[in-house]
Design a protein that fits this description.
The protein is of the alpha/beta class.
């Protein structure tokens, strides 16, 4: 919501035209950024409107153009007032019920996410026979009455995972329409995943690579979500840093077995297979969500059917090779929900 206050300090009425400047990508959802009116002496008025921005990023509203007419409408004076308001638009997010991703070697903190291993926790895991030292409160008396021997409940171990999100922001990631390309989908997915993992008290880190490698160290909480969303909002498509350069830099600093989610179009990078192979060789749980610029270009009729089929075959071969390395890979189609893509990648 934008509010602009206009004041007339003169003892005379003034006929005013006022227009607030907006970035081209913004749409006015309610109200107007323009007013033409007669403003009485020493009076004030408000211009109020609501804008909607479909694209993430940093934006500025302003300057304000003012035109003042004389009483008879014969002459006017124009002036541009350097009044600005800077703000940030975060990527759109999708509410996720599950991401189907859990660490193999989580850090233990009560009250976080359950993993399929027995230990201190809150959710039922299994029944087993009583052994000396088991607490009395763990005994399942109903099972004892049914089976004739003392049984205890095992709980599913609670844990906190380290999650690493890797976002491809190379120049090729912006191939396609401005609102439908790999970078748009990648940043939205990363924002949604960060929100989901942090809400379940995981520790989330971020790596964005394009002309340089920008990273946010792992942390938890609402402050971390704000930091991650800010980095994603400012991600620009440029450069051509190979994925293997990224993985070589981050691997020494990530706990073994941590889930790594790569969001990339998988194009114009000869190191992709080696990078994923290196991650899998070190037992990282790797998920690759790949929005294809081929789909965006074909839908926009910038790519003919023959060219599309040839490039699609090459892409399918690459995806099969990555799956053969043990990575979970999903060819993310433009109209597919993130939750559906995640479930498909993880085999659910």
């Amino acid at each position: 919501e934008v509010t602009l206050k206009v004041q007339n300090h003169s003892p005379l009425s003034k006929v005013l035209e006022v227009r607030d400047s907006l970035p081209e990508v913004m749409r006015i959802k309610k109200g107007a950024n323009y007013i033409l009116m007669e403003l009485g002496p020493r009076r004030e008025t408000m211009i109020e409107y609501t804008v909607e921005c479909p694209l993430r990023g940093f934006y500025t509203i302003g300057p304000v153009a003012v035109r003042i007419q004389d009483t008879f409408g014969f002459f006017h004076r124009e002036k541009e007032l350097h009044v600005y308001d800077d703000f940030l638009v975060f990527p759109k997010t999708e509410d996720l019920k599950d991401a189907f991703v859990k660490s193999k070697v989580p850090k233990i903190f009560t009250g976080a996410v359950n993993i399929r291993q027995p230990g201190p926790g809150s959710e039922f895991y299994n029944l087993r026979e009583y052994v000396p030292g088991d607490p009395m409160k763990s005994i399942n008396w109903a099972a004892y009455a049914r089976m004739g021997k003392v049984m205890v409940n095992e709980r599913e171990r609670d844990a906190v995972s380290d999650i690493i999100l890797i976002i491809d922001s190379r120049a090729v990631s912006e191939t396609g329409p401005v609102s439908r390309n790999s970078l748009v989908y990648g940043t939205r997915a990363a924002a949604s995943l960060a929100q989901f993992f942090l809400s379940r008290r995981d520790s989330v880190g971020l790596v964005v690579y394009g002309d340089e490698i920008v990273s946010v160290d792992r942390d938890t909480g609402k402050k971390q979500l704000y930091v991650l969303l800010t980095k994603l909002a400012g991600a620009m498509a440029r450069g051509n840093t190979p994925l293997q350069v990224v993985t070589n830099r981050i691997m020494p600093h990530i706990n073994k077995g941590s889930p790594i989610i790569v969001l990339s179009c998988l194009e114009d990078d000869a190191t992709i297979v080696n990078a994923i192979r290196d991650l899998r060789a070190r037992d990282f749980d790797v998920t690759v969500l790949t929005p294809s610029s081929l789909e965006f270009e074909f839908d926009a009729r910038r790519l003919d059917r023959t060219g599309y089929e040839v490039l699609k075959t090459e892409r399918d071969i690459l995806i099969s090779e990555l799956r053969g390395l043990g990575a979970f890979v999903m060819d993310w189609e433009p109209d597919m929900l993130l939750s559906t893509a995640l479930a498909g990648a993880r085999g659910f």
